[in-house]
Amino acid sequence: EFRRVLFRSYCEAMSLHIGAQKDQIAPDILLPGDPLRAKWIAENYLENPIQYNSIRNIFGYTGTYKGKRISVQGTGTGIPSISIYLNELFNEYGVQRAIRIGTCGAIQPELKLGDVILAIASSTDSAINRRALNGLDFAPAADFSLLSKAASIAGSSAIVGGVASMDVFYDTTDAMEKLSEYGVLALEMESTALYSLA
Predict the structure, then answer these.
(1) Distance CA 59, CA 42 (A)
(2) DSSP string, 141-198
(3) Which residues contact 107 (CB under 8 A, 6 or more apart)?
(4) How far apart are CA 120 and CA 81, in angstroms?
(5) Which residue from 73, 94, 69 is spatially nearest to 31, judged by alpha carbons?
(6) Are 45 and 65 in contact (CB under 8 A)?
(7) Cα(50)–Cα(72) distance, rounded to whole angstroms?
(8) What's the whole-number mean pLDDT along residues 163-171?
(9) How far is CA 139 from the centre of its chain?
């Protein structure tokens, strides 16, 4: 709270980590972890993209796609990093629909390189949900109407199922084998924060 008060005294219209003006971010946003992927998406898919953020080299852009105003914001890697950006996007900029896009590691043998996964739920080994709910385990899930719409647009090319957001990238435990037994499709590092905070 102290940092927020200090920063607000510097510039009332900006958030701490994004720093955009209130109207520069669209209600619909894509969230790749890699800021250079956000830049690439903006340059290759958005018409007239305008960069609204470069604080800490985490880039954000707004433009139009097929006439619809869309933003794309890098979030960095891991639950703590994406949580910073999600809190500011939801609370300071009024984002209504947030879609995490990026890569993951498949743990089911039938999945192939390039398959598209739509995550219905996200297991985690992170304590972030327990901290928010006084020690309870919360199983965050996608908004059904948004997930259903994405699945109908993607058709049979997308696989719908659970993923797991893990805190450790180079994990030496047997967590991957156990999650695979339970039908989890892939491992990544951010979706549980998105679903919980949304």
Answers:
(1) 10
(2) B--HHHHHHHHHHHGGGEEEEEEEE-S-SS--SSHHHHHHHTT--EEESSHHHHHHH-
(3) 176, 179, 180, 184, 185, 186, 187
(4) 22
(5) 73
(6) yes
(7) 10
(8) 88
(9) 16
Q: How far apart are CA 94 and CA 151, in angstroms?
A: 25
Long-range CB pairs of 49-55, under 8 A, 24+ apart, other chains included? 50/24, 52/18, 52/19, 52/20, 52/21, 52/24, 52/25, 53/18, 53/19, 53/20, 55/17, 55/18, 55/19
Structure tokens at 73: 């914001």
Buried b (16+ CB within 10 A) or exposed e, 125-153: ebebbeeeeeeeeeebebeeeebeebeee
- Tokens read off for 159: 């696989």
Burial 16-50 (b: 16+ CB within 10 A, else e): bbbbbeeebbbebbbbbbbbebbbebbeeebeebe
What's this model's pTM, rounded to 2 decimal places? 0.87
Q: Residue 70's closest CA among 26, 17, 31?
A: 26
AA identity, residue 40: W
CB-based contact 47:64 (threshold 8 Å) = yes
**80-125 pLDDT per residue, tens:** 999 999 999 999 999 999 999 999 999 999 999 999 999 999 999 8
152: which 2 tokens? 């109908």
